[in-house]
Design brief:
It is a single chain. The protein has 13 helices and 16 strands. By secondary structure, it is an alpha/beta fold. The chain has two domains: 6-61 and 329-427, Aspartate Aminotransferase, domain 1 (Alpha-Beta Complex), CATH 3.90.1150.10; 66-321, 3-Layer(aba) Sandwich (Aspartate Aminotransferase, domain 2), CATH 3.40.640.10. The strands form four sheets. The chain has a seven-stranded mixed beta sheet with strand order 4-12-11-10-7-5-6, sandwiched between helices. Strands 1-2-3-15 form a four-stranded mixed beta sheet. The radius of gyration is 22 Å and the shape is globular. Bound molecules: pyridoxal-5'-phosphate. Residues 112-114, 117, 146-148, 204, 209-210, 238, 240-241, 266 line the site of pyridoxal-5'-phosphate.
Amino acid sequence: MNKVSLSQRDQQVIWHPYTQHQHSGMPIPVIRGEGALLFDDAGNSYIDAISSWWVNIHGHANPYIASKIYQQALHLEHVIFAGFTHEPAVQLAERLLKILPGNFERIFYSDNGSTAVEVAIKMAIQYWKNKEIPGRNKILAFRHAYHGDTFGAMSVSGRGLFTEAFQDFLFDTLFLDTPDGQHLQDATSFIESHASEIACFIYEPLLQAAGGMRIYSASGLDALLKTARENNILCIADEVLTGFGRTGRFFASESLSYQADILCLSKGLTGGTMALGATACTQEIFNAFLSDDRRRTFFHGHSYTANPIACAAGLASLDLLEKKTCIRQINTISEKNEQFLKSKLALVDPAIVINPRAIGTVLAFEIQTSRHEYINQSADLIRNEALKQGIYLRPLGNTVYIMPPYCITDAELEKIYEFLLSVPGLFRGN
Ligand SMILES: *Cc1c(COP(=O)(O)O)cnc(C)c1O
């Protein structure tokens, strides 16, 4: 009797994210993970060089986080969070507020990065409504930004392929170029001239990730934040990706002099184990919702708000992150990336490897292919070649990048670097 494989069963019932099923290949059944490695059902292993869509920081199936999740599940798996509270939610909020850069006083929980952003922009919009200050009805964001896939998050994200089908349903957003060189003066004047209509300014500090791993200047962003603050524009730092060590610091905003009023977290928050989002805000924002008038209430919540198991995973992840060994691992990866960039990547023909760059544990470059129209095929080619070598990569178009879990070993990292140096060869004679 023929046994139907998991991939075949999957193809009958599953619709995968960001996948064109017309010509996507069979998905790889993963049966186990350990450290930076994923194991498939055929006995192959793959180094997870992108931390499973940027969420994993302590490695797969981490036994410490797993045991904390198990303990919490035996104790209290979930409870409605309106009118009830629990230790993991309060403790996680206390610990986050202690380490976040800025004057944050409150944490609002949700389910993922997109919802953390939805909460942030709804807080900012209603803040002005509650203050009875009219006219602040636009949101300012960067071109090439990515803030998530729900409607509000899409509306404040750069317009492109991902948002095209929904264009007519997205609200109008004011877009700025990231503040490098020439663009800084233009951006500052733009903010000043539109200030009275801007409710808030949302930004991914230092690194626009999904938009193509674009690194931009901290001093430029500081100048914009200064202008925004002077004009009473609420600032929203989307640290969904940059949080928890990704850019070398605990939070990317630590590299800035001006801090946000609202800050979004998810991805690394639970070490990549459970879905959880958190939106931090200042006392000033929170106070604007205190009223005898019920209409000033923040009417937002999700069934799984502050799920205790997810919060317990968040606490366990913070335990690990705050250990000296983890901080050392982040520094080591950052240094190795810098070194690889300078001593190896920079020496590759700049007509083939374009704009190599690194920030903390993230390293990226563009690959020049002679056939631009086949950009997605080049991503597939790189992905498939990497898989053959036991490495999992998922280029964004022609942007090749790595973002490994912090527990990755030196040997695993070297193997990834070696593969990256072989990438130009895949395109020779193209
Ligand atoms: C991934 C990401 C999001 C969306 O998070 P999801 O959990 O995928 O909804 C929002 N903002 C940034 C900066 C991200 O990188």
